[in-house]
C-alpha cells in the first residue's frame, strides 16, 4: 500500500537552500476552503480527457467511487493517526456518489472531508504537545506500531490518544538514543508537531483540489496524475535546473522525506553517502549552520531547503534505510554542484586477468541513461551527442583492443529516449522491429531498426537489475527476443507504459487562466515477441540470487499497476539459439560459496526483514540491544567480504565511513561482484561455443 500513496510531487528532482516555503505561507481561514469555478471547470476537462485518451478503459462508476474515497483518506491520513472510525463511517455516504459528483464537476465532498481532517490534526497536535511535557518510562515493555496503513481506524478517542502517546514516546526515544538532552528533545518535538499543524493549516483550495483529483487519477493506475498550476511551475523549474544541485529524487512517506534514487553524476551519487530508502530528517546550510528538523514538512518545502547555488554546502541528517530506531542517525555533508554530463555518458573499459578467465579480455560498456541532445539535433549539428553514437565509438575501440566479448551494463539505468533504445539495439542486429507501441485506441506502431549495418557481431551479454527501466527494458527485451545475447541479473523494473503531459487549458477555447497539467498514461510498450515489459519487466536468462528479493519492487509493488499483457508478435527472425542449461549450472556452482554474493544476499535479507517490521519496542534496553545485534551481524559479513577482496578488517562499520579511500574501494568492489560474474558467464558461453559466441 505505501508505494501507491506517493503523490506526483514525489518525482520532483532535488538539485538545489533558502528559507522553506511554509515560512512564507499564511494560515488559510477554514471558511475559505471552498472549491473555485476554475477547479470545477478543470474537473470537467480532466474527466473528459481521461475518458477519451487514457490507455486503460475504466468506468467512472460506483466501484471507482469507492476506490477514490479510500485513496483520498489514504492521501490525507496514510498512517491512520487523525481520523476516527466514526469519521470514516460518516463520510461513507459518498462511497457510491463521488463518480456522479465528478461527472457533474462537483467537488464539495473533498473540501468537507478536508475541513474535518484539519480539525482532527489540530486535536492530535494539541494532545501531542501535552505529552511532550510529561514524563516517559522507558523501562516499560511495550511497542509502537509505526506502520499503521493496514491497521483498523481508531474506534475511540482513548484509542487514538494511546496511539499518539506511543508515537511521542518513540520520537522522544529516538532523540534520546542520539544522546540529546531532555530539554533539547522537548524543544525539537514541540517545533516538529507545531510544524505539522502549520503545514495542514496552510493547505489552500488548490492543494485540496490536487489531492482529491489525484485520488481519482491514481485509482486508474500509478502514473496518471494532476499537477496544479503552482505544481506545474515547480516542475518546470526542477527540469530547467536539473543539472545543478545534489542530484537526488525524493518522495514523501507519512511525513518523512525519503530518497527514491540518486542521479548518476550528481554529488549524492558520487559521494556514496546517500542511498535509495534513506530518510532525510534534518537539513543544515554550510559547514556549521544549525540543522533544522524537517520531519513533517511538505515535500516542496524540503526542496527549498536543499536547493542552493553551485559550490555551496548542505548538511543532511539521515536515517539509513531500514533504521526506524534512530540509533544509526548520521550527518552527511554534500557540496552542491553541476551534474557532470560526462558522468551520465556511456563509458567503456576492459576486464582482464580475472579469476577463471585469465587469458581472455571482456569489454564492458556502461550505459547509465538513454540520452540524446535533441536541441543540438534540431539546430542541425551533425555531431550531436547520443547514446547510440557514443556506444558505437566505444564498440569500435573495444574491437581494436581485441576483446573476446562485450557486456552492456544497464544497471540503475532508468530509461530515457525511446529512439535511442531502438537505435542502440540496431548496433547489434542487421535490421528488424525493436518494440511495439499500442495506444488508447488500439493502434499498434512498430519501431524498426532503420540501419542494416551492425557495429558489433561478437559474443554479447546484457547486465540488468531491478532499477533498469523503460528504455533499458526495451533494449534488453529486444536482445533477448532476438537471442542476440544473454540477459543476466535481476528482473527489471516493469515500467512498460508511456506518459505525456497534457496542458488542460487548451481544451477550453479562449481560456487565459492556467488550469494545470495532466500527466496521462496514453500507450503501452510491447516486446517484439508480443509480451509487454509492463509489470513483469524483463526476466533475465540467468538470474542472480538477489533476484528472488526483487519481486516486491518496481511496478510489481504498486497496488493497481497495469497488468502484464500480450499482443500479436512482430515479424522477426532470431539471430541465435539462446542460452544452454550448462551456463546456468556453471554459474550456480561458481557462486555457491562466493563471499561477494553471500554479502549481497545477506544485505537483501536484512533489508527485507526490516521492511517487514511494522512495530518497534519502546523498551530502551531492548532497542539498544537489537541495534547492537544487527550491527554485529553486519560487521561479520562486511569483514568476510573485505577479506575476500584482500582488504583489511574493520572493528566497527563506522570505520569504513570515515576512511574515504577504503570506502571507495569497498564500493567499487561491491559494484564489480555482479559485473565480474557476468563476464564469467559470457566466457562460459564462448567456451561452450554458444551461437552468440561467433566473432566476426
Summarize this, please?
With 696 residues, the protein is α+β, with helices and mostly antiparallel strands. The chain contains 21 helices and 22 strands. Helix 16 links the parallel strand 17 and strand 18.
SSE layout and pairing:
Elements: E1 13-14, H1 37-53, H2 62-76, H3 85-91, H4 98-103, H5 108-132, E2 143-145, H6 157-176, H7 182-201, H8 205-217, E3 225-227, H9 229-240, E4 244-245, E5 248-253, E6 256-262, H10 267-271, E7 279-285, E8 291-293, H11 299-306, E9 313-319, E10 330-335, E11 337-338, H12 341-344, E12 347-352, E13 361-366, H13 374-379, H14 387-400, E14 405-409, H15 418-426, E15 432-439, E16 444-449, E17 460-464, H16 471-481, E18 486-489, E19 497-503, E20 517-526, E21 542-543, H17 581-591, H18 595-612, E22 615-617, H19 620-644, H20 653-658, H21 660-687
Parallel strand pairs: 13-14, 14-17, 17-18, 18-21
Antiparallel strand pairs: 1-5, 2-22, 3-20, 4-11, 5-6, 6-7, 7-8, 7-9, 9-10, 12-13, 15-16, 15-20, 19-20
Helix pairs in contact: 2-8, 5-6, 5-7, 6-7, 14-15, 15-16, 17-21, 18-19
How many strand segments? 22
Radius of gyration: 27 Å
Query: Helicity, in percent?
Result: 40-55%
CATH homologous superfamily classification of the largest domain:
2-enoyl-CoA Hydratase, Chain A, domain 1
CATH topology of the largest domain: 2-enoyl-CoA Hydratase, Chain A, domain 1
Percentage of residues in DSSP E strands? 15-25%
Structural class: alpha+beta
Task: Report the major sheet.
Answer: 7 strands, antiparallel
Number of domains: 3
